[in-house]
Amino acid sequence: MVPYSQLRIQWRTLPDKGNSSREAYITHYLHSKGTEHSRYFIKQAFEHLSEIGLQPKDIRKIRQVAWDVPFPPPARPKFSFIDLFCGIGGFRVSFQSLGGKCVFSSDINYHAKRTYEFNFGEVPFGDITKVDEKEVPDHDVLLAGFPCQAFSIAGRRGGFEDDRGIMFFEVARIIREKQPKAIVLENVKGLISHNKGKTIKKIVNTLRNELGYFVPDPKVLNAKDYGLAQNRERVFIVGFHHDTGIKEFEYPKPLADKKSFKDVKEDEPVSAKYYLSTSYLKSLKEHKERHKNRGNGFGYEIIADDSIANAVVVGGMGRERNLVLDYRLTDFTPITNIKGEVNREGIRKMTPREWARLQGFPDRFQIAVSDAQAYKQFGNSVAVNAVQAVGQKVIEKLEFSS
Question: Which of 14, 260, 291, 344 has its CA 20 to 30 A from that of 106?
């Protein structure tokens, strides 16, 4: 048994390191070795190994890879799934916990793919528009959190006229070719109202009428109802292949157990770098006051320990809407170059780990990027608990859990 980390070092330290297509084929082959899915990757994987000086025969000799990563594949999977627009793997964490094995992943963002590899031992393939649907392995469940910017209230709301909006049709292309038993899609709440409801109607009609899936009405679920301390509403779209015979589906009901920020707060005092400078805090207060005088509520917000966070999002006021009070700091020496001093009011940003917990990622999930990238990645991710709750209902319907 050879540790994955040892194999990874071999190709990452050779010339042309960082070739994500090469690494995608090799890692997908290692995950599929000994299964029917390996035929989709073996030829290209061996070609790439030869190009960088490794012998395919040495890989063939490996009877089993020791997946020394935080989230190894299940030893005895109950079903297979693919992870499109996978980001850092929120869908994968959820569905692996339900007993599924990922047989294909894809995302265009370089940094997200690196985080994904650190945690799952697999480099996702890149731009989905360049993925040949015939080269995607057969699978039971298709998962996709297709890009939401085109439908977001905060975005341009271009919908299908925005290139990011038509990514749904890339998903439909793969569904048409591979005919998975079930599909689970996730997007922003704004998708429901976009273009007076015409956009969501087009998506549902495509799945129902063109692809022949049973699709119950989409449902908006809030992360706070599924064990997360975050007010995050997202729309879920579920579908079942007509061959399954499934004609009804009930989305998961809210849980009675509610969480608050204190459930995800760092146990130990955090670095001074997360505390706002006096200069920055002054500008935030002035900004909020200006908007208050105009009669709106824009501006920073401090989340009490017994409250839930606002949705963690990328850009804009994403972090400033989720400031917290933490009086445990004793060394106020600035860590970075800031204007003014570290504030003495105990006001700080949440840490990337706190954002990870708000999204439902276990603490063993590795944050192997800069703070700036981490905030972006968790802000773009799905809420793991909500996805898992929906996934549990889907798998129960498909009777994989028995």
Answer: 14
